Amino acid sequence: MTLRIDIGGLPSGRLRFAASPLAELTAMLHVLAEPGHHPRLAGWAADVWAGLRPELAERLREAEFLWRSSRADFLVPARPRPTLAEELDDVDRIDDETYVTGALITTCGSNRVHFAARSPLADARARERALGLAQARGALQEAFAERLLADPAAVRARVRHTLEQCADAFFDAAWAGVAVQLADDLRLKKELLKRQGIGAALASVSGAVTLAPDGDRIIVDKLQDSATSAHGTGVTFLPSVYGRPHLVAVHAHGWQPVVQYPVAEPSPSEPVSLETVTLRLKALAHPVRLRLLRTLARGAHTTGELAHAWGLSAPEVSRHLAALRRAGLLTARREGRYVRYTVNLPDLTALGSDVLEAVLR
């Protein structure tokens, strides 16, 4: 499964490496929403939550669908600015339809949700479909989608104010701590791009990002199987400290391709028993199981949702989920008449950083 970015004939100057305050804030918000994805930052996340004013904590929970399982495209800028305020000003310039569509895709819980043909703001059927998808994800998602469709301006203003409050609460201090690290990484990438070309620069980004042999495409190992073009816009690469180990790619129609990549941090994997490794690697050996696990790493899903997303039968999905559960890689939780499955991140982490990064990309 790959994302292919067509760069045929693209001047090297249109491949940009830059730091984005907004993208890094979004990565921090993801850590706060999913601390299990980031064991080394769990202490930081706990300290931030403990210090948040109750009002801000509630605001983060009500809008977390913009950054929890995936990132809303407008929170990962293609043209980064020096300050968070400038990048938020750019978000304010996005039209309501583009903003709402980007927000609904993450709120409804799937990058396979598309609203391009009919706008949920203008078309009753598209609106009903959006609300139905949000409702299936949970009551909080449904409430957020309803507010967004009823009064986009009010929700947009509230989200911006929430992000501005985050700057005072924790982002400014954290950004000061990582700015030098990001700058050092950017100098390396730009030097490689200048002296050795695109292939070398991409190789330094991640082992999951490569240049096709013909030099006309960037290949990104992601859960999605899709393609986009950088012609007329270029490609932007954003380093991230708080985003580690995720590799985030913005590639929706109408958006300039952007890749947020983790700044490397060498660290040895903790040893685990051979028996445990063997059991879990056997469970991961089947390509369908690995695909399901990568989907579940982005949020809880039911058997029916997984079957629909991948075009499989429910019994087939159940068999694969059972194998993953026997290996201790999944946790099941009943919510009313639904059973939702999530990834058991501590046990997945024990397999090592390479496996963890491959699943969480």
Commentary on this structure:
The protein has 361 residues and is α/β, with parallel strands linked by helices. It is 52% helix and 13% strand. It has helices at 21-33, 42-51, 54-62, 84-92, 96-107, 124-137, 139-150, 152-196, 198-205, 274-284, 287-296, 303-310, 314-326, 345-349, 353-360, and strands at residues 2-6, 15-17, 209-211, 217-221, 226-229, 235-240, 248-250, 258-262, 330-335, 338-343. The strands form three sheets. It has a four-stranded mixed β-sheet. Helix 6 (124-137) packs antiparallel against helix 7, helix 7 (139-150) crosses helix 8 (152-196) and helix 11 crosses helix 13 (314-326). The longest helix has 45 residues, at 152-196. The protein is globular and about 50 Å long. It starts with a strand and ends with a helix. The mean pLDDT is 87.
Give a quick set of tags describing it:
15 helices, four-stranded mixed beta sheet, 13% strand, globular, single chain, 10 strands
Biggest sheet, in brief?
Answer: 4 strands, mixed
Any low-confidence stretches, pLDDT <50, length ≥5? none
Strand content: 5-15%
The succession of helices and strands, N to C, reads: EEHHHHHHHHHEEEEEEHHHHEEHH
The N- and C-terminal alpha carbons lie at a distance of: 11 Å
**Share of residues in helices:** 40-55%
Give the neighbour order of strands across the main sheet.
3-4-1-5
Number of helices: 15
Strand tally, please?
10
How does the overall form come out from the CA principal axes? globular
Structural class: alpha/beta
Looking at how many chains there are and whether they match, the oligomeric state comes to single chain
Rg for CA atoms = 20 Å
Q: What is the arithmetic mean of pLDDT?
A: 87
